[in-house]
Amino acid sequence: MVEQDSLAVVKATNCSEKWYKDGVQFGCTQCGKCCTGRPGYTWVTLDEIQTIAKQLNLPINDFVQRYLRKV
Q: pTM for the whole thing?
């Protein structure tokens, strides 16, 4: 099982003037535009990782190793 502490949580410092200072929140519309092609990132939470791994019928560690990368 993946421990929450082992997943990177990116925190920006000194970004009060940036448009994303409060984080980036969105709901998936299943359009495929945010998670295909380059460049770009789709950030996931531990809950999302668990849900997706379950949907794909994969152990969480397998899902993380196969589909995620730490940036």
A: 0.49
